[in-house]
Each structure stands twice: as structure tokens, then as C-alpha cells.
């Protein structure tokens, strides 16, 4: 992978074809489908809506996220990913503007060919924008991996690449402040490799953000 | 007079205005329990606490208490050569927190379980060959680790990893004999000693919370967790490499703050590792 092309013909620094659609679901206040190549995630947002009294907060909106895999019931790994998406949503929306309500984000994975958490975050952000939930920042997510022993980072890994990579990362950034909202790194890596992956992915995230802007404005009255 | 002092007033203030209360300390570079920002709570570890298990440990980090027990069972060898036959389950008992009830594991438990299983797999804690039975290659030892949280005062992740590693380090694989036809693996009752389990890597987790206005708080208490804007959990191996790094929260972090957190966490992990190593098996 260091010198040659990857399985699907990409270079190390190349993202797959991005694709997004909004307003895909009639009932939700907002919805979006986001794709990194074949990885496809649907996000649907309801909110601000009524919240159960037990979860009500007097000074902020309650964020609830459910994350469903392609097949079957959500397992521990899906709950953990849902928790990551929830923390991203909490960082992005202006919770204080809608106290005693809830914003519910439903994530449905439609196809997982790698970088699924990043796709889920991007889908959720587009769905929140589609729903018109007030947001303080627009997080953008990108995944990357260090394949085998080679130190060359490759962006947007396929599922097959994730399986054999020695380290896989997902990052979400607030590009306006250049700060990191979320990182998830697994495998064997050193601190400087994590930093390198973070900085490189932030550059790649610019491309994703430009795409998100295009996707959001398409089909909307200007 | 406004300033009246008194324990009851301070307690009410703490409960009603936790942010202001903690800010008073953070402003002086301290935390509410008197610790420095980068300081962990006192760590107590004991091993061999469950006599009926093959290995066990009890970990106390401040008020947080976790116990782990390891059971060895024989089963069919896993199909894949690389698969480590270890199953870890973390239970958040109702007695550790008023938020947990009997029945379906709470979300927190599922998140913690995913984390601990990732650490075990990614850290390659045990080499798969360590658990094989050479005389009977179609069988393998399975390690079943149960981790119970007995008291929850924040930072379960670090305590659970310490308990897991502490118990595994103390684990002895029982001696076995084989039946006449070679088809059964039986425990050796003759009193032959088992062999100690050898770990390939020992992961140590360090969780730092980022409190109001980007103040770092390593090893957060429950109160600090509820106030925290962000969490960074870094799991270090003995060679200084990382095997898991998770950062999430409702506020974003700058590169400098992340670097500072990781540097502090690396030295904290080294000191936790020394403490754990000093506890006799």
C-alpha cells in the first residue's frame, strides 16, 4: 500500500466518492443519507420535541441518539458508537436555546464498507442542518488507518483495510476553530502517529466540509 | 452577612451550584478534593481476593471500587489462529449507583464493555499460543473474566483496566490430565501446580476530564465527570505505545491541549504501572 495503489485503485491520500442527500424521510424534522463510497448511513432527526420528564433538563435540550446496525438488534459496539455520535451532537447544537426539549437523532447503517462512524457523524450533522436545529459548529468527520507496518497513512479505509490495519482512527473536527471534537483510535500506535493522523485528517476534512456545503445548498432556495 | 461558612451551607452550595463550587478550586490550580490537576487518587490493589477463581484482583481508586475474577475453561480451539480466546464482561451492579437497576445492562455498561474488549483485542494482551493445549491442539483454554463495579465514584474505565490486568497477572492455568481415549481434558487432582499465565502486554488506561474552561482533571470523580466538557482516555502499553485513544465530549480541544493531556497521561500511566507491579501476586 505504501508504494502501490489500494484495493479499490485509490492513492493513500484519496477519499472515496462522497455522496449525500437530505430530506429523504418524510416524517422526520430533518434527515440525510451520507456515503463514503459504498459505506452508507441514514440519519433522521426529530427535534426539538417533547422529552420524557425523567430526562428533562431545565436549562438545556436533551440529546438522544440511537444507532442501529444493518442487521439485527444494536449490540454493545453499536451503543458505543451511538454514544460517540451523541457526544458530537451535544458539542454541535446550541442546547441552551431549547430547554426542556429533546433532539433525537436516529442513525441507521445501510451499508458498512469501512469508516462507518465518520459517515454516521457526517450524516447526523447534515440531518441536524436539514432539521434547522440551531448549531454552534458544524463538525466534519474523516477516518484513516495505518495499514500493516508501513507508516503511510491512508484516508477513508475500506472495511477490508480496517480489518488488517495496525491502527484505525476516526476524527471529527470543528474546522472554524481547528479544534478536535472527537477522536477514536484503536490499534498499536505511538503518540506522534496519532498527532500526524489528526493533522492529516483535518486537512482531508476540509474537502469533506466543502462537499457538505454543496450538498446542503443543492435544491434549497437561495 | 453573606459569608457565613458552615458545613451545611457549603454542602448546599456544592449541590446547587456545582460549577461555581468547583471553579473556586480550579482557579487555584486544585480540585475539590485537594488534588493537583494531574494527580490520580490513591490506588489500592490486592490480588487473590476470590479463592475459587484462577486469578482475581480488587482495585480501589479513591472511592471507585472494582473487582475482577478469572475463570479458566477448556473448549474447542477457535477457528482462527489469531483469535485470543478471552471473554470479558463488565457488570455495573445496581449497588454501585442509584442510576442502575437490575435487568438490561445500562448504556454505560455497554460502552464500557465495548471499550474493555477493544483494549483486550488491540493490546494483544495474551498471545493466542499461550492458551493452546499442545497435547490436544483441537482444544484450547478459554479465559472468562468477570469484572464487577462495586462502587462508582468516577473513572470506571481506568479502574476496570487495572482490575483486569491485575487479575490476569495473577492467573494460574490449572494443570490437566487427559482421559484414556484422549478425548477428555480433566483437571489434575493430584495437586500438581498449574502454570502462571504469561501476558504479552499490560495495558494501563488513564482518563482525563476537561473541566470548565479547559482545565485538566486526571482521574475525575463522579462529580467532576458530570461537570466535564470532554474526556480523553488513553491506554498505554509498557513500551509507551498506545493501543486505544478515545476522546469525546461537548467541547472541542485544541492540538496543544490534546498534546498536554497525552504527555501527562503517559507519565501517569508509568507511575500506575509501577504501583501495580509492586503488588505481590
**How many DSSP-defined strands of chain A?**
9
Shape of chain A: globular
- Intertermini distance of chain B: 58 Å
Strand elements of chain B, count: 13
Describe the structure.
The complex is a heterodimer of chains A (222) and B (281). Chain A has 222 residues and is of the alpha+beta class. Helices cover 30% and strands 32% of the residues of chain A. In chain A, 50% of the residues are buried. The termini of chain B are far apart. The longest helix of chain B has 23 residues, at 255-277. In chain B, the strands form 4 sheets. In chain B, strands 1-2-3-5-4 form a 5-stranded mixed β-sheet. A 4-stranded antiparallel β-sheet of chain B has the order 11-10-12-13, with helices on both faces. A two-stranded antiparallel ribbon of chain B has the order 6-9. The mean pLDDT of chain B is 90. By secondary structure, chain B is α+β, with helices and mostly antiparallel strands. In chain B, strand 1 and strand 2 form a beta hairpin. Chain B is built from 6 helices and 13 strands.
Sum this structure up briefly.
The complex is a heterodimer of chains A (222) and B (281). By secondary structure, chain A is α+β, with helices and mostly antiparallel strands.
What's the structural blueprint in terms of helices and strands?
The complex is a heterodimer of chains A (222) and B (281).
Chain A: E1 18-22, E2 30-36, E3 39-49, E4 62-68, H1 76-92, E5 102-111, H2 116-131, E6 139-147, E7 154-155, H3 159-164, E8 165-174, E9 179-189, H4 191-217
Parallel strand pairs in A: 4-5
Antiparallel strand pairs in A: 1-2, 2-3, 3-5, 6-7, 6-8, 8-9
Helix pairs in contact in A: 1-2
Chain B: H1 7-16, H2 18-26, E1 43-47, E2 55-61, E3 64-76, E4 86-92, H3 107-122, E5 139-151, H4 156-169, E6 172-173, E7 176-178, E8 185-187, E9 195-196, E10 204-211, E11 215-218, H5 222-227, E12 230-236, E13 242-249, H6 255-277
Parallel strand pairs in B: 4-5
Antiparallel strand pairs in B: 1-2, 2-3, 3-5, 6-9, 7-8, 10-11, 10-12, 12-13
Helix pairs in contact in B: 1-2, 3-4
Amino acid at each position: 500500500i505504501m508504494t502501490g495503489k489500494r484495493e479499490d485503485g485509490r492513492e493513500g491520500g484519496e477519499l472515496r466518492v462522497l455522496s449525500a442527500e437530505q430530506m429523504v424521510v418524510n416524517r422526520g424534522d430533518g434527515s440525510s443519507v451520507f456515503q463514503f463510497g459504498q459505506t452508507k448511513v441514514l440519519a433522521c432527526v426529530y427535534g426539538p420535541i417533547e422529552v420524557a420528564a425523567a430526562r428533562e433538563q431545565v436549562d438545556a435540550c436533551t440529546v438522544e441518539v440511537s444507532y442501529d446496525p444493518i442487521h439485527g438488534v444494536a449490540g454493545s459496539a453499536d451503543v458505543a458508537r451511538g454514544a460517540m455520535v451523541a457526544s458530537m451532537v451535544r458539542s454541535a447544537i446550541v442546547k441552551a436555546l431549547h430547554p426542556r426539549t429533546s433532539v433525537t437523532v436516529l442513525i441507521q447503517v445501510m451499508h458498512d464498507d469501512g469508516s462507518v462512524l465518520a459517515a454516521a457523524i457526517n450524516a447526523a450533522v447534515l440531518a441536524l442542518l436539514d432539521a434547522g436545529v440551531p448549531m454552534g459548529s458544524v463538525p466534519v468527520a474523516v477516518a484513516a488507518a495505518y495499514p500493516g507496518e508501513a507508516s503511510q497513512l491512508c484516508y477513508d479505509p475500506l472495511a477490508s483495510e480496517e480489518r488488517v490495519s495496525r491502527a484505525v482512527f476516526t476524527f471529527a473536527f470543528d474546522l472554524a476553530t481547528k479544534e478536535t471534537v472527537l477522536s477514536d483510535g484503536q490499534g498499536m500506535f505511538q503518540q506522534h502517529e496519532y498527532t500526524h493522523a489528526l493533522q492529516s485528517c483535518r486537512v482531508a476534512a476540509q474537502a469533506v466540509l466543502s462537499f457538505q456545503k454543496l450538498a446542503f445548498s443543492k435544491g434549497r432556495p437561495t | 452577612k453573606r459569608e457565613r461558612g458552615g458545613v451545611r451551607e457549603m454542602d448546599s452550595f456544592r449541590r446547587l451550584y456545582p460549577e461555581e463550587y468547583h471553579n473556586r478550586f480550579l482557579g487555584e490550580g486544585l480540585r475539590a478534593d485537594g488534588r493537583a490537576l494531574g494527580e490520580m487518587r490513591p490506588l489500592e490493589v490486592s490480588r487473590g481476593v476470590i479463592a475459587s477463581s484462577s486469578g482475581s484482583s480488587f482495585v480501589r481508586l479513591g472511592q471507585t471500587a472494582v473487582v475482577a475474577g478469572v475463570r479458566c475453561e477448556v473448549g474447542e480451539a477457535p477457528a482462527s489462529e489469531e483469535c485470543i480466546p478471552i471473554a470479558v464482561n463488565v457488570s455495573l451492579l445496581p449497588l454501585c449507583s442509584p442510576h442502575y437497576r437490575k435487568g438490561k445492562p445500562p448504556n454505560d455498561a455497554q460502552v464500557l464493555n465495548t471499550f474493555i474488549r477493544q483494549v483486550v483485542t488491540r493490546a494483544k494482551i495474551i498471545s493466542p499460543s499461550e492458551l493452546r493445549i499442545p497435547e490436544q491442539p483441537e482444544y484450547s483454554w478459554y479465559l472468562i473474566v468477570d469484572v464487577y463495579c462495586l462502587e462508582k465514584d468516577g473513572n470506571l474505565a481506568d479502574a476496570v483496566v487495572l482490575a483486569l490486568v491485575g487479575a490476569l497477572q495473577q492467573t494460574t492455568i490449572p494443570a490437566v490430565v487427559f482421559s484414556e481415549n484422549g478425548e477428555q481434558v480433566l483437571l489434575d487432582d493430584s495437586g500438581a501446580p498449574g502454570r502462571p499465565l504469561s501476558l504479552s502486554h499490560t495495558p494501563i488506561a488513564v482518563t482525563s476530564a476537561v473541566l470548565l474552561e479547559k482545565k485538566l482533571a486526571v482521574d475525575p470523580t463522579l462529580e467532576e465527570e458530570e461537570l466535564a466538557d470532554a474526556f480523553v482516555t488513553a491506554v498505554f502499553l509498557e513500551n509507551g505505545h498506545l493501543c486505544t485513544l478515545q476522546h469525546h465530549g461537548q467541547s472541542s480541544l485544541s492540538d496543544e491541549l490534546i498534546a498536554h493531556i497525552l504527555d501527562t497521561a503517559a507519565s501517569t500511566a508509568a507511575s500506575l504501572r509501577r504501583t501495580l507491579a509492586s503488588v505481590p501476586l
